[in-house]
Amino acid sequence: MENLLYILPALACPVGMGLMMWLMMRPKHSAQTEPTTDRQELVRLRKEIDALRSDQASRDTIPQDRPA
Predict the structure, then answer these.
(1) What is the pTM of this model?
(2) Roughly how many angstroms between the first and final C-alpha of the chain, as a whole number?
(3) How far apart are CA 41 and CA 51, in angstroms?
(4) DSSP element (H, E) containing 16
(5) CB hemisphere CA count around 48 (13 angstroms)
(6) How far is it, in rounded angstroms, from Cα 8 to Cα 53?
(7) What does the pLDDT average to over 25-39?
(8) What single-letter DSSP state applies at residue 67?
(9) Measured over all CA atoms, what is the biggest interatomic distance in the chain, rounded to whole angstroms?
């Protein structure tokens, strides 16, 4: 019985790590509904990037008066 008290802490770490790895590897069922939301945000961000690039390109082509 006394030896069991020494073995349990030594086994707790690998058993706990195995359990955590198993839980993390399981597929998430709630993540299947999110790709449409992620896709919509990706499209929105790409449009915003395109708008910013075109705005910057138009600023680069127009000479601006700079004070001397």
Answers:
(1) 0.41
(2) 89
(3) 15
(4) helix 2-25
(5) 6
(6) 61
(7) 73
(8) -
(9) 89
